[in-house]
Amino acid sequence: MKSSSKRSSAQKTDIHDVAAHAGVSIATVSRTLNHVPTVDAALAARVWKAVAELDYLPNTQARALVSGKSRLLGLIVSEITNPFFPELIQEFERIAVDQGYEILIGSTSHDPKKMDTCVRRMLERKVDGVAIMTFGFEEIVLDRLIADEIPLVFIDVASKHPRSGVLSVNYREGIQEGVQHLAALGHRKIGFISGPLHLRSAQARKSAFLESMQSAAVPINPKWIVEGDHTLEGGRDAMQTILSQKALPTAVMCSNDMTAIGVQHAVFEARLRIPEDLSLIGFDNIHMAEYTIPPLTTVQMSCKDLAQKAVRILLSHLSPEGGKGEIEITIGTRLIVRQTTGQPRN
């Protein structure tokens, strides 16, 4: 009953009540709610205390009309069903909210039409900036965002947009550690299951694997290099293709963890064991990777790093003193050794 009464009272509360309760002007309340950095810290603290005590819910649409800022950041991801992206979304939202922003999420499933719909939604809601974390996109649908000079962040793709940033993932760093780890265990027969090769990130991971194999002087067998689609089913199917060969690898690296978990299922169906019959390495280090049986050795690409640095770039371009020009930040990768790798049987 108390919470219901409190909510009813909150609905009648307006900015005048907050100002009176805090003992400040309406302008100070407005500037505080809009996160204007020049507001005196003591006055801002009184405003936020009054907001909490009155359970005041600001009208964000009205604030956007007055300030010209929506305090809304867009986040476009490619595949919401892949656990990597919910983990990324959760971290992105946490950091954005800490900075006084809400987020608007769109998922494309690598479909240009869905990407176009996402971009339209972002424009309709007048987002202040957009992080495009799809690991591949159709540039043409972004023309409207660029035309409106909305700050943008991309993964792996440089843009000519003057208010943009790129998160450049060092795929080779972690993948080379993975190949060297397998080679040190004695593996000379190593396969690779890529992601869909129309994606730049999948191409980059495959190239990093091939370069790392050459650097480690490990022979490459093209029959063990199979294209997958970054899904559980794709990993299972790709591994079944490899298992149909007369000669089999003793280890397989995968372009993401979902693929690797699908490989685990195919190996189980074939009545083989990991790592006794096949060593396995994934990529991403999703939370689930620690709880597979056995726990998955994988290359970590930190969701936390991606989210933190994407928000940092957007806020840099949105700050009053923020200049124009593309910002580039490198995201490192590293091998996390668990229990799916071991010495080859022979």
Describe the structure.
This protein has 346 residues and is of the alpha/beta class. The chain folds into three domains: 2-67, lambda repressor-like DNA-binding domains (434 Repressor (Amino-terminal Domain), Orthogonal Bundle); 72-170 and 303-332, Rossmann fold; 171-301, Response regulator (Rossmann fold, 3-Layer(aba) Sandwich). 45% of the residues lie in helices and 17% in strands. It has helices at residues 2-12, 15-22, 26-33, 41-54, 60-67, 84-98, 112-124, 143-147, 171-185, 200-215, 232-243, 257-269, 303-318; strands at 72-77, 102-107, 129-133, 152-155, 164-169, 190-194, 225-227, 251-254, 279-284, 297-301, 327-331, 333-336. The strands form two sheets. Strands 2-1-3-4-5-11 form a six-stranded parallel beta sheet, sandwiched between helices.
User: How many domain modules?
Assistant: 3
Category by helix and strand content:
alpha/beta
- How many helices? The count is 13
What's the CATH superfamily of the largest domain, by name? Response regulator
What general outline do the C-alpha atoms trace?
elongated
Q: What tags apply to this protein structure?
A:
346 residues; alpha/beta; 434 Repressor (Amino-terminal Domain); Rossmann fold; 3 domains; six-stranded parallel beta sheet; six-stranded mixed beta sheet; 13 helices; 12 strands
